[in-house]
Each structure stands twice: as structure tokens, then as C-alpha cells.
Write the C-alpha cells for this entry.
Amino acid sequence: MEVGTMKTCSRSPLLLLWFIHVTIPAVLEAQGVKVWPEVTGYLGHDVTLPCTFIQGPQHADITQVRWELKPPEGENIILIVFNVNFGVSVYNTFLKDRVEVEEQSLIIRDVQMTDAGSYTCSIVTFPSGSFEGTTNLVVQGGKLILPRMIAAGVFVLIVVTILVTTYFIIIRIRREVLVEHRVCYDEGGAMVCE
């Protein structure tokens, strides 16, 4: 019976380090689309749904950006498309006059409750292909009321403070004027002031 011996290579750790050095950065620098999972918009205000293309180790040129809405009920609705050769095309939807693309992000003007839903940013690149990410837009109507109420309360408090201060200043001045104009005289041992 022959007993085998195991031989080790002194280069194994170096080979492993080289392999890690080559593969890990490529994985960490993978191309893709970065979006926020959820964005809150406030009724009557503008909202931006961020979308950014992350370049990887291989440079890619963006050729098209498209935004779609997947409402809670219904089919996907293409909202707006930007193409480097053909420019911007806004589709005839209920958002037609209120959407625009800035870089790759979608801006919705004058947000309405019906604007809530899942928005998908699709980016087509050359030579790397297509990437997409989805953001959920939540629309709230009441959050901006509280700051307005606080501002109104502070305004009323300031006005009341000014009025009360003015009142006390006027009362003090009147008292000083009254004291300065009193005439006092002695009438047979009794002091009389008028």
C-alpha cells in the first residue's frame, strides 16, 4: 500500500488574492439603475422621483429613458420617453401637462391623489442593454396643514404680544402724564390733590 503525500503550492494565497482583486470590484461596480423604494408627495406640490444610472467598469451611453405608471388597478401607462435621437415625447395621459424628465428623474407638478402608484424608470444604454427600477409614490394631503397652522399660531402670538405691550406702554404713559399734572394743595392740614 502506498501512502500519498499532499503537496501545497506556496502561490495559492497569492492566486486567491489576485482572483478576489479581479472579481470583487467588477461585482461591486455593476451597472444598474438606482431609485428610491418610496417617495412621498404632497397634494398640490411638485415631487421628484429620483432615478440615476450607475456606470460600471464598462462605459455605457444612455440612449433612452422611459417612465411608466402602474396604477393600483389597471395596465402600465407610459408617461414620458426621452430618446437621444428623437428628444422628449410626453404621452397623452392624465399627467400629460404635469410631467417632465430632468436627467433621468421624473418631476410631477401639482401632485394629485390620483397620481399615487408604482412608477418604473427604464434606462436603455449602449452597449450594456436595459435597466429598470421602481418607485412607489405615496400622496399625502394633510402634512402641510400642520406647518401652516403653526405659522398662523406664531403670527397670532406675535400680534397679541405687540398689542399687549403697546397697551401697557400707553397705560404707563397715561399714568405718568396724570401724575405730572396733579395739583396738590394744603387745606388746613389736609392734603388735597386734583
In short: The first strand starts at residue 32 and ends at 35. DSSP finds two helices and 13 strands in the chain. The chain has a mean pLDDT of 81. Residues 164 and 170 are 10 Å apart (CA to CA).
